[in-house]
Amino acid sequence: MATSSYAFSALGSKRIDFDLLLRLVPILVEVGWDVFNVRKPDANGWNAESLSRLAAFFTPSEPKSEPTIPMTDGTHDATCNCFSIRPSYAPLAPEAESNTKRKLTVRQGSEVLTLAFSEIAFTVTSTKPDGKAGKRKHATTLYHIIWAEVSGATLTVSFVEKKEKARSVCIKATLHGSTEAEAAEWVEDLLNAAYKDIKRNKKLKVFVNPFSGKGKSVELFNQIVKPILDHGKCFLDITFTTHRKHAVEVAREISLDYDAIVVASGDGLSHEIFNGFAEHENPRAAFAIPLAPVPTGSGNGCCLSLLGLEDGFDPTLATLNVLKGKYMRSDLCSVTQDGRRTISYMSVAIGLMADIDIGTEHLRWMGDTRFIYGFLRGIIRQRPYPIRISLKVSERDKHEMHETYQAAWHKQDDDVETCWDDLLPSEKLPPLRYSEAETDGWEDFDVPTLYFYSGLIPYVGRDLLQWPLALPSDGLIDIAVQETASVMSLLGGMGIAPQGGQYWSNTQHFFKVHAYRIKASGTGVLAIDGENNPCNDIQVEVHKGMGAFLSPSGRFGVHFDYPAPGSKK
Ligand SMILES: Nc1ncnc2c1ncn2[C@@H]1O[C@H](COP(=O)(O)OP(=O)(O)OP(=O)(O)O)[C@@H](O)[C@H]1O
């Protein structure tokens, strides 16, 4: 769980983590200086005007009846003091291994080891001098096997092991009691089981953005990502991006024989790649190549959405997803603004959430804590954004949407009909279905808006499961509109936002739509997939299954089950 969200959960439950509070203090101080325009105390102590501004803020002026999100219901996990979500993918317990094991004995120094695998698990056990099994040294699932090979009398097996943190392990040992041919057969059986239905020796286009996140992408790539892909015997064609839109330039010319595209960056680079695909001479084939993000950015919402909250910030497990992930079709949308069409795969934000993303660029050194800073600053300043929202609604009742989601989540199918199926030979991209003049079936939604946020994937970052009902290819856009509300209710919502609990808040409105329009003021920021755009009018429509990703489960890595207020769960 994200440390920052842990801190807010902690505030809600009166449990204090001093380390985290220490981390938050400078942020709160910064926010305080900024919001209240308070002068720091000088030699004469506090300035009286500053003190009266602070006092005015802490005097409640809003009605007490403002609904807040309940903090006490749900599946409570005492270990992290949070509400737990069932991940759609989790490593299987090694105990689940079946009895039919294939074993190989090797020697490493003076130690004799038994390597064994079943249909789902792989174990390494030391062997006592009397031949009996000794201590279990490693245990993992076959999903976590990277590679195995035998050369002469030397056996090499590499895998990812997840104890507290995931790390890659490589065992190099000498055959003990078996021939090279017997070992080669064992190796081939292991690889067949570990790569069942998954292509080996993938040809990968790799993008590394040295600028993303805290600027550590190259280091993370060289230390973690590349060694795993090399062990996995992949062919790598690497581009270190040197400027903005570099990935667009490469993607528009991309060779179509790559098995996947590895994106070692944050969410912005995938946006560039999709928009490069849109300019490719064969967009249909380009969009069919799956993206596999590796989280070296700030928010990494896409990686979190694919791997889940627990694993989505882990470069090791994200790299394993490159090797082992399942193909997953994903909806994309077209954002039309001033006659220009942009492809978006993640989000469109106006208001507070756009300010957070774009307005905290100068705080990159904070990592994703900069979003908490931006949020606190924004909810204290709290100003409604003058926009007019018009929606082509498919669903709007929160409880009904939740029920539809639960049923659809369990029925997710690999074989999805996509927007490409209806394309005429003359068309390169899916055509836009809604003209700007069309009003039939469109409805206005008018509230004092703190932020408008539309999305196609569940997570924005570790601290916010913004669109908990998002499904990869339901052909619908998830919309969240946050009304202006009391500071305390918005702060209360932060503690449960990593689990999507704010979905049930009365001041946050949700819709599933086919398309929408925003009439914007022209001032401020409009963020498309976290990238800065002019805040002019937009029209947005979805394209079912237009793009593709790799994901460990072939679904999003989150299953939303945060209980509605008053439910018995
Ligand atoms: N060499 C470079 N120098 C400066 N900017 C670059 C370079 N390469 C790519 N970029 C730009 O970096 C920007 C940020 O990338 P990205 O969004 O992937 O990371 P992030 O903002 O840290 O993470 P997130 O979007 O997950 O919060 C993109 O707009 C991209 O165009």
Describe this structure in words.
The chain has 569 residues and is α+β, with helices and mostly antiparallel strands. The protein has 3 domains: 1-86 and 327-415 and 432-548, Tumour Suppressor Smad4 (Sandwich); 94-194, Roll (PH-domain like); 202-324, Rossmann fold, CATH 3.40.50. The protein has 14 helices and 24 strands. The chain has helices at 3-13, 18-36, 48-58, 180-194, 217-231, 246-251, 267-278, 283-287, 301-307, 315-324, 352-359, 369-381, 398-410, 487-494; strands at residues 76-77, 82-83, 102-108, 111-117, 121-127, 133-141, 145-151, 154-162, 166-175, 203-208, 235-240, 260-265, 291-295, 326-337, 340-344, 347-351, 388-395, 443-445, 449-455, 477-483, 508-519, 525-528, 531-534, 538-551. A hairpin with a 2-residue loop joins β7 (145-151) and β8. α2 (18-36) packs across α12 (369-381) and α11 packs across α12. The chain is elongated, with a radius of gyration of 26 Å. The model is unreliable at 1-20 and 37-93 (pLDDT under 50). It binds adenosine-5'-triphosphate (ATP). Adenosine-5'-triphosphate (ATP) is lined by residues 209-213, 241-244, 246, 265-269, 272, 297-300, 530-531.
Portion of residues within helices: 25-40%
Distance between the termini: 22 Å
| Overall number of strands | 24
Bound molecules: adenosine-5'-triphosphate
**Shape field:** elongated
Tell me the major beta sheet: 11 strands, antiparallel
Low-confidence stretches: 1-20, 37-93
- CATH architecture term of the largest domain: Sandwich
CATH class of the largest domain: Mainly Beta
Beta-strand share of residues:
25-35%
Determine the CATH topology of the largest domain.
Answer: Tumour Suppressor Smad4
**Mean pLDDT, nearest integer?**
83
The SS-based structural class is: alpha+beta
Count of alpha/pi helices = 14
GO cellular component, one term: cytoplasm
Organism: Thelephora terrestris
Protein name: ATP-NAD kinase-like domain-containing protein
Domain DAGKc: 199-339
